[in-house]
Amino acid sequence: MSGLDEKLRDVHEEVLRRNPGESEFHQAVYEVLDCLGPVVAKHPQYADAAVIRRLCEPERQIIFRVPWIDDDGQVQINRGFRIEFNSALGPYKGGLRFHPTVYQGIVKFLGFEQIFKNALTGLPIGGGKGGSDFDPKGRSEGEVMRFCQAFMTELYRHIGEYTDVPAGDTGVGGREIGYLFGQYKRITNRYESGVLTGKGLGWGGSQVRTEATGYGTAYFTEEILRSKGESFDGKRVVVSGSGNVAIYAVEKVHELGGTVVACSDSSGRVHDDKGIDLDLLKEVKLTRRGRLTEYAERRDGARYDEAGNVWEVPCDIALPCATQNELNGHDAAVLVRNGCEIVAEGANMPCTPEAVRLFAEAGVVFAPGKAANAGGVATSALEMQQNASRDSWTFEHTEERLAHIMRGIHDRCLETAEEYGTPGNYAMGANIAGFTQVADAMLALGVI
Ligand code: NDP
Ligand code: 2IT
């Protein structure tokens, strides 16, 4: 299929053969391998020790049945996953996703991305991911709680503060982390705060964790703008999604001087040219767990378009914050035509390979998720630090740490891209910098 160099092509073919049907995982692996040509040319030791082949094979993959009883008294069966991908740098770390589309290929792609993202934070965390094909939409509070308890009744034996530390992702927020932690505590009879992150502020959670991914994406974008001698002032921004990452991206973009003129959910888009009203968005999505249609009904001048494509709203900056492969080649062409200058991924792998190629051709700056959305997991690692020292930091201190980490990731991507002869290419910089950090640790730890 590819323009990969020979050794990398063999690795890629092996991944395709050993993981049939897992297209998202194939895509994520290819995207990384595609950047590693200059690295293996310069450092043959990585190929010699089969570091890249080992990296593509998870250390452990857990699949389990999750039986629970719904409000009608019916037994429901879901499938649970935890992929413990790589622990060279620290305990496995990564979120849990509850969404009907979840299967092994999605969890593996997310776990694979997480290895490099976590390395880029510079904090001691390995890569993992988990989740279930459970669909929380339309489920009652009681059903969500019973599902979380059933999920943890199996998962608890695999996790721990020094082993594997899950957190939230799509469909898993503070409410679910609460139920998961409660069940872990009950089964193990241990108040082990560091076993999960994204906990409530009153019981071991960290300030800023809720906001961290969206804030981090906005900070990363601000660094890109700064490197071009610009700022958010006067910039029109489009954000896709209206969940955890999207909402706090909107909040920070507004604080930094930009205007978010559109956002979306899986049913359509809202266009609000005056700028998204954040209080209303939070009330509809966070307080009421409602739909964006309600936002448009209550906001003068805002329009909801069912099946409307959010990328058709003209903007200077696009922040895809919903889900994988949500921005394809067609969307990229529309963004380019409308003069978009920067695309920074708040979600994991939201841009298709064709979209990324079109951005490169058009000179649009592209920041990949493993760099631009690393603020969430970085703040999770800060939560682990606070838990380990039984401490709790202020909002200001934690946010300052987050902003510092995001600036560090940004600079490291640019410096690495420069070093390997592709100045300004954030994807090259992120993949190479993340890879070399993990690969060096793997070499030091021997063949394990
Ligand atoms: P949420 O569940 O809070 O929100 C997800 C949003 O994306 C919703 O608006 C949802 O719309 C939309 N969405 C989800 N799936 C689809 C789909 N298949 N098609 C169209 N829209 C969809 O999730 P998060 O905000 O936490 O996560 C969003 C992205 O960010 C994911 O890629 C996640 O992996 C990534 N991420 C999350 C982090 C975190 O800390 N939470 C950290 C780093 C990355 P609807 O309500 O209609 O379903
Ligand atoms: O994709 C991600 O980085 C997350 N969902 C956050 C993981 C974490 O452990 O905080």
Classify the beta-strand content into a percent band.
Answer: 15-25%
Shape: globular
CATH class of the largest domain: Alpha Beta
Order the strands across the largest sheet as they lie in space. 9-8-7-6-10-11-12
Q: Which kinds of small molecule does this entry bind, naming each only once? A: NADPH dihydro-nicotinamide-adenine-dinucleotide phosphate, (2Z)-2-iminopentanedioic acid
Q: Considering the protein shown, what is the CATH homologous superfamily of the largest domain?
A: NAD(P)-binding Rossmann-like Domain
Describe the structure.
This protein has a seven-stranded mixed sheet with strand order 9-8-7-6-10-11-12, with helices on both faces. It has a five-stranded mixed sheet with strand order 1-2-4-3-5, sandwiched between helices. Helix 9 (209-227) crosses helix 16. It folds into three domains: 6-55; 60-192, Rossmann fold, CATH 3.40.50.10860; 212-372, Rossmann fold (3-Layer(aba) Sandwich), CATH 3.40.50.720. Strand 11 (342-344), helix 14 (353-362) and strand 12 form a beta-alpha-beta unit. It is globular, with a radius of gyration of 21 Å. 48% of the residues lie in helices and 16% in strands. With 448 residues, it is of the alpha/beta class. It has 18 helices and twelve strands. NADPH dihydro-nicotinamide-adenine-dinucleotide phosphate binds next to helix 10.
